[in-house]
Write a structure and sequence with these properties.
Layout: E1 6-11, H1 19-32, E2 36-40, H2 45-48, E3 52-55, H3 84-94, E4 99-104, H4 106-116, E5 122-127, H5 143-164, E6 167-172, H6 179-188, E7 192-194, H7 207-220, E8 225-230, H8 237-249, E9 253-257, H9 269-287, E10 293-298, E11 301-306, H10 319-329
Parallel strand pairs: 1-2, 1-4, 4-5, 5-10, 6-8, 6-9, 7-8
Antiparallel strand pairs: 2-3, 10-11
Length: about 325
C-alpha cells in the first residue's frame, strides 16, 4: 500500500461521453480512502496555468448522466515543447500531489510518459475516447455512446436516402482509427465502409469504390446506398470523395459530415458502468502502488496494462466482421 494523501485528476484530448462518470468514480473512491482530490482544468494545460479546483463529493453529484467533462478538456501543445514536461511536473510537486489520474486517449498517455520522466509521483491512465483505439482495454469510455449517436444519425440519413434512392457518404470521426466507422457501418447495414485499416484510398483507385456501387445498381436497380467513411480517408476529405464519385459514375453522391455531434450527449449505460468501474479501479490500484499503468477492462475484468504499450498497435477490428462486410454487403 502506498500512502497517497493528495491526488489529481484531469481529462485530456477529445472529450468522450462518460468522462464525468469516471471523474465521479475517482472522487468517490478517493474520498473512501480519505484522499484529497484536485481537478485540473483543460487537460494538461491546467498544470501549466495552475488552473485547478479541490473537488468534493458535491461537485460530482448528478454528473454521471452528463456528456462532456466538468473539468473541460483540451489539447496541450506546451507539454510537447522542450522543458514542458519538467514544468508540468514542477506544478505537481509544488502542490504536493502524490498521484495523477489521466482520463484520455493514447496521445494523452504519451503525454503521461513524458511527464513521468520528471514527476516523482504515481501516474495512472483511464481510457476515455470515442475512437476505441487504445490497446489494453476492450472498449474505451465514450465509444458505446458515440456508436449509438452515429447510428441514430445514419438511420435517419438512410430514411431519406431510401425515399430518394440516393447514394450518401457519411463521414465519422476517428483521426487515426476506423474502429468507430467499421462498427457503425456494420450496425447500420451500410453497403460500403472506407477506413484507414483497409489501406489508403486515392483518386487513382476509385474503382474499388465504384465497382461495388455499379454491381449493386445492376442487382437492385436504383436504390439507397450508404458508404461510411472514416475521416482522413481520402485526399480532400469525404466531400471531395463524393464529388469525384459523382463525376465518375454520373449519379449524384452526397456527403454528410457527422462531426462533433458524435462526441456529445448523455453517456449510454455501458459507458457509465465502464467509466465507474475504471475510475474506481484506477484509484484502488494507485493505493496498491500502481504506476505508469492504464486501468482497462478485458473480458469484463478490470486489468492493469502498461501505459507505454497503449498505443503500440491499433486495436484489431474483428476480422470476422470485416470479411463478412466485404464479402456480403458490397454485393
Ligand atoms: P483523442 O484521440 O480522443 O483525441 P488523445 O488523448 O489521443 O485523445 P491527443 O490530442 O493525441 O488526444 O493527445 C492529447 C494531449 O496529450 C496532447 O495535446 C498533448 O498535450 C499530449 N501529448 C500527446 N502526445 C504527446 C507526446 N509525444 N509528448 C508529450 N505530450 C503529448
Amino acid at each position: 500500500m502506498t500512502q497517497i494523501k493528495r491526488l489529481a485528476v484531469l481529462t485530456s484530448g477529445g472529450d468522450a461521453p462518460g468522462m464525468n462518470a469516471a471523474i465521479r468514480a475517482v472522487l468517490l473512491t478517493s474520498a473512501s480512502y480519505n484522499i484529497q482530490v484536485l481537478g485540473f482544468e483543460h487537460g494538461f494545460n491546467g498544470l501549466f496555468e495552475q488552473d485547478f479546483q479541490t473537488l468534493h463529493p458535491k461537485h460530482v453529484e448528478n454528473i454521471i448522466q452528463r456528456g462532456g467533462t466538468i473539468l473541460k478538456s483540451a489539447r496541450c501543445p506546451a507539454l510537447q515543447q522542450p522543458g514542458g514536461p519538467a514544468q508540468a511536473a514542477a506544478c505537481l510537486h509544488q502542490l504536493q500531489i502524490d498521484a495523477l489520474v489521466i482520463i484520455g486517449g493514447d496521445g494523452s498517455f504519451r503525454g503521461a510518459l513524458a511527464l513521468a520522466e520528471h514527476y516523482k509521483g504515481q501516474i495512472i491512465g483511464v481510457p476515455g475516447t470515442i475512437d476505441n483505439d487504445v490497446d489494453g482495454s476492450d472498449f474505451t469510455i465514450g465509444f458505446a455512446t458515440a456508436l449509438d449517436t452515429a447510428l441514430d444519425a445514419i438511420d435517419k440519413i438512410r430514411d431519406t436516402a431510401d425515399a430518394f434512392e440516393r447514394i450518401f457518404l457519411v463521414e465519422l470521426m476517428g483521426r487515426h482509427s476506423g474502429y468507430l466507422s467499421l462498427a457503425a457501418g456494420i450496425a447500420a447495414g451500410a453497403e460500403q465502409i472506407i477506413c484507414p485499416e483497409f489501406g489508403p484510398l486515392t483518386p487513382a483507385d476509385l474503382s474499388s469504390v465504384i465497382k461495388p456501387i455499379q454491381h449493386a445498381q445492376l442487382l437492385r436497380g436504383k436504390s439507397s446506398y450508404l458508404i461510411i467513411v472514416a475521416e482522413n480517408s481520402y485526399p480532400g476529405g469525404t466531400s471531395a470523395l463524393a464529388d469525384d464519385l459523382t463525376k465518375a459514375i454520373g449519379v449524384e453522391c452526397r456527403a454528410v459530415i457527422l462531426g462533433h455531434i458524435q462526441r456529445g450527449g448523455s453517456p449510454v449505460g455501458a459507458d457509465r458502468i465502464l467509466a465507474t468501474k475504471l475510475g474506481a479501479f484506477a484509484v484502488e490500484q494507485l493505493v496498491q502502488g500502481a504506476h505508469l499503468m492504464m486501468a482497462g477492462e478485458v473480458n469484463a475484468q478490470a486489468v492493469l496494462y502498461p501505459l507505454s504499450q497503449t498505443g503500440d498497435r491499433k486495436k484489431a477490428i474483428d476480422p470476422y466482421l470485416v470479411r463478412w462486410q466485404q464479402q456480403v454487403c458490397s454485393d
